Amino acid sequence: MQLNCFGWNLNDNYQPKKAMKKILVFVTALFWITACEQEEILNNSGKEQEASTKSIIGKWNWIRTDGGLAFHIHETPKTTGKEITLEFKANNQFRKYVNGVLESQGTYSLSSRTCIHTHEEKQVISIPSEMDMMIESMDANNLQLSDENFDGLGSQYQRK
Asked: How far is it, in rounded angstroms, from Cα 146 to Cα 65?
């Protein structure tokens, strides 16, 4: 007798124990592969968030700001005559210097929020005396902040 079921050839020599063993091995392997991938994603996400929190600490020099309605704003230290430095300290203290003079200071906090542009979770810097700034991207030497508006502004900073 010959019977084909879901790609399995079931004939007179059919051995249920061998078939069950193959199925069990396949299901177990599939489970472990899926579990490992999920764990890796969770670990990477946690590491990225940790790195972002730690790497914001320091002084950042303003490079440029672009955006606005119809992307008409393009400002740099040269066009504005302003050298702006943001300083984030490990104790959550914030300072903003304009042309070397302290303009504002206070306590900052970091939180997560869904970005209105990419719909991804990103970190937001909240400072009582300033507008909230979303961290669009950051690496060891570059920081991209936005005011998180559809016609908003994006500013680039470089680590001092």
From this structure: 9
